[in-house]
Structures are given as structure tokens and as C-alpha cells.
Amino acid sequence: MKKLVTWVHRAEDSLLVLLLLAMILLAGFDILARSLFGGGVSWIPPLLRVLVLWLGLLGALLATRTREHIAIDLINRLAGPKTKRLMTVVTLSFAAVICGIIAWHSYAFLAVSRDFGDIAFAQIPAWPLQAIIPFSFALMGLRFIAQSLDTAINGLEEQA
């Protein structure tokens, strides 16, 4: 199981690096094409918008993996160890539920997009490009569940 988790983490990190590199190269090429030839490639700007979505959601996955996501932790700063542990379990569980709801509804959105034949750009269907939304929120929800269970079982000290 640990090898699978390590492999998933490496795949996420590699995909983030590749997406960022692709964005830099495509944006640079588009800027050069506009400057040197008077016009860029028509499909690069919409592709960059899709890559920003993918990069943002994969970055959110990385943040949840390392527990560096945005959190309001006033109670955790003021509470004792038992209350802190309980509140961590509650907030992680709540985050998992919210991510699950978003994943569910974004999957429904994806199905509607597929059924209506939405086109993103250059005759490319929109739904494969939007598939990152339910996938990333489902994975974030699973991570929040795992972190909540880990906190409930092992406490806050052993977490990395």
C-alpha cells in the first residue's frame, strides 16, 4: 500500500511539473509568435486556461497531501490537546464531506457537458478537459477522510 501511495505522489508531482513547463513553453511561444509574426496560435490561450485549471486543482491536491491547505485554526491555537484533536477530526471530516459534494455535482456537470457535446476549443470536447474537477475533489475528499481517521486513531503528534 505504501508503494502505491508513493507512486501516486510521484505521479502528481511529475504531472504538476509537466503542466507548468508546458504552460511556460506555450505562453512563451505565443508571445514570440505575436511579437515576431503579428499573431499567435488561436488555440494556445484557451489551452492555457485549461492548464491553469488543472494546475490549480493538482496544486490543491498537493496542499491537502502535505496539510498545507488554507485552514482557519483559531480553536486549534486556543484549545487543549483533546479539544484540538476532536476539532481536527471534525474539520477534516467536514472538508471531506464538502469535497464529496463538489465531486458529485461536478461529475453531474461533466455528464451534462458530455451529453450536450460542449466543445472547449479546436473541436476538442470540453468534458475530458473538465474531468480534473470531480477527480481532484474526490481524491481530496479521500485524503481528508484518511487524515481524519489518522488523527482520530493516532492523534496529532505522529502526523507529518
Automatic annotation (TrEMBL):
<dbReference type="GO" id="GO:0022857">
    <property type="term" value="F:transmembrane transporter activity"/>
</dbReference>
<dbReference type="Pfam" id="PF04290">
    <property type="entry name" value="DctQ"/>
</dbReference>
<comment type="similarity">
    <text>Belongs to the TRAP transporter small permease family.</text>
</comment>
<keyword id="KW-0997">Cell inner membrane</keyword>
<feature type="transmembrane region" description="Helical">
    <location>
        <begin position="85"/>
        <end position="107"/>
    </location>
</feature>
<feature type="transmembrane region" description="Helical">
    <location>
        <begin position="127"/>
        <end position="146"/>
    </location>
</feature>
<keyword id="KW-1133">Transmembrane helix</keyword>
<comment type="subunit">
    <text>The complex comprises the extracytoplasmic solute receptor protein and the two transmembrane proteins.</text>
</comment>
<keyword id="KW-0813">Transport</keyword>
<keyword id="KW-0472">Membrane</keyword>
<dbReference type="InterPro" id="IPR055348">
    <property type="entry name" value="DctQ"/>
</dbReference>
<comment type="function">
    <text>Part of the tripartite ATP-independent periplasmic (TRAP) transport system.</text>
</comment>
<dbReference type="GO" id="GO:0015740">
    <property type="term" value="P:C4-dicarboxylate transport"/>
</dbReference>
<keyword id="KW-1003">Cell membrane</keyword>
<feature type="domain" description="Tripartite ATP-independent periplasmic transporters DctQ component">
    <location>
        <begin position="23"/>
        <end position="150"/>
    </location>
</feature>
<feature type="transmembrane region" description="Helical">
    <location>
        <begin position="43"/>
        <end position="64"/>
    </location>
</feature>
<protein>
    <recommendedName>
        <fullName>TRAP transporter small permease protein</fullName>
    </recommendedName>
</protein>
<keyword id="KW-0812">Transmembrane</keyword>
<dbReference type="InterPro" id="IPR007387">
    <property type="entry name" value="TRAP_DctQ"/>
</dbReference>
<dbReference type="GO" id="GO:0005886">
    <property type="term" value="C:plasma membrane"/>
</dbReference>
